Amino acid sequence: MHNRRSFLLKSLFASGAVIAGRKNVRAVSGASGPVVVSTWDFGIAANAAAWTLLSAGKRGVEAVEAGVKVAEADPENQSVGYGGLPDRDGRVTLDACIMDEFYNCGSVMCLEHIMHPISVARMVMEKTPHVVLTGDGALQFALANGFRKQNLLTPASEKMWKEWLKESKYAPEQNIENKLSKKKKPMPGSAANHDTIGMVALDSTGNLAGACTTSGLAFKMHGRVGDSPIIGAGLYVDNEIGAATSTGVGEEVIRIVGSHLVVELMRQGQDPVSACKAAVERIVKRNPEKARQVQVGFLALSKAGEVGAYALQKGFTYSVRSGTVDEIRSSPSLF
Predict the structure, then answer these.
(1) Do the bridges between strand 105-111 and strand 132-134 make them parallel or antiparallel, or are there none, so unpaired?
(2) CB burial of residue 25 (10 Å; 0-12, 13-18, 19+)
(3) Are 80 and 195 in contact (CB under 8 A)?
(4) 20 to 30 Å CA-CA from 51: which of 6, 44, 271, 318?
(5) pLDDT digit string (tens) for 13-71?
(6) Separation of alpha carbons 72 and 200, rounded Å
(7) 8 lies in a domain?
(8) Which residues of 252-276 are buried (b: 16+ CB within 10 A; e: fewer)?
(9) Is 138 helix (H, G, I), strand (E, B) or coil?
(10) How far apart are CA 59 and CA 62, in angstroms?
(11) What's the rounded Cα separation, in Å, for the pair 171 and 273?
């Protein structure tokens, strides 16, 4: 009798969690209409570029590449691409990955001197037998395929790096993306500890795609790679089920293969919010004390056009664009 009572209580709790999760699920499009979602406030401009292609009937993979390139090229966005905050040696190293509806994927890691790592990642996907190219090899490949070498360290980012060197304190600051994108200087001695734009889209033919690109943790050790360019961690697309991306401290996302986990939970019947929440709870279960000190957020899009997000801490925002919606939303959080 005790076991039966425990089972019923657990079942009731689980049902309540699903119901609570669905309150935050918002379908912005049916499978026949396009939608694009991306992380953070600055995703609104990236979505606009993606929407131009989606509304013209282009493939999702084309749209997400075009969308995140907006963030990569923005020198005032110090969390992605050109103008990104450098590593401890003052070098801007970029990571990116892309995935289409056919499970094709490409990635570059620790790429320097190239404005658009997402385009190099797509070329890796389409022109090589590989999934990942890194460092000098990725640069060599990019230059051989017509990309131009340039200095990505802007005066503003160089100044912040030199200020950081005075104390060399490596302390995380939650939700730094929105603070930087609004031109607010980070707290003295702090590190931008989760810098990325992740984007997933459903095109007019009902196919999914995703892209993720970043300049990585500010003032990181040279050579450090987070979750952003890792298929299954920072991004995953399953055209039968849905797509997911992540933002936050990449090491924590890698440990649970976060974006793949979110998609697999949707495969099991969970809606996007519930799936994202379950992934967040997995991080907490692994290390409850550390989970309170960092930020991680997940963003998911189902095959049916349902959108959902969930984060460890308050402050994670995401941007949504469809034929009827163009807005920034706040994600629910655990803490």
Answers:
(1) parallel
(2) middle
(3) yes
(4) 271
(5) 344 444 444 555 555 544 458 999 999 999 999 999 999 999 999 999 999 999 999 99
(6) 16
(7) no
(8) bbbebbbbbbbbbbbeeebbbbbbb
(9) helix
(10) 5
(11) 29
pLDDT of residue 331: 95
Amino acid found at 310: Y
Which uninterrupted H or E stretch holds 74? Answer: none
CATH number at residue 121: 3.60.20.30
Which of 108, 111, 114, 123 shows the shortest CA–CA distance to 147?
114
* Segments of the chain with pLDDT less than 70: 1-32, 169-195
CA distance 208 to 8: 38
**Phi, psi (rounded to 5 degrees) for 25:** -85, 130
DSSP secondary structure, 237-283, as one string = EETTTEEEEEEE-HHHHHHHTHHHHHHHHHHTT--HHHHHHHHHHHH
Distance CA 31, CA 235 (A): 21
Beta carbons of 268 and 22 less than 8 angstroms apart? no
- Show the domain range for 186: 27-330
Take residue 171 and report the two structure tokens written for it.
């302390």
Domain count within the chain: 1
Which position has the token pair 């941007």? 319
pLDDT value of position 76: 86
Comparing CA positions, the residue from 266, 286, 267, 287 lying closest to residue 275 is 266
Classify residue 277: in a domain, yes or no.
yes
Query: Mapping DSSP to helix (H, G, I), strand (E, B) and coil, where does residue 201 land?
Result: strand
What's residue 84's pLDDT? 92
Active site residues: 196
**Is residue 93 assigned to a domain?**
yes
Segments in the chain forming alpha helices (H): 2-23, 43-54, 60-72, 117-127, 135-144, 155-165, 176-181, 250-256, 258-267, 272-286, 288-291
Q: Is residue 130 part of a domain?
A: yes
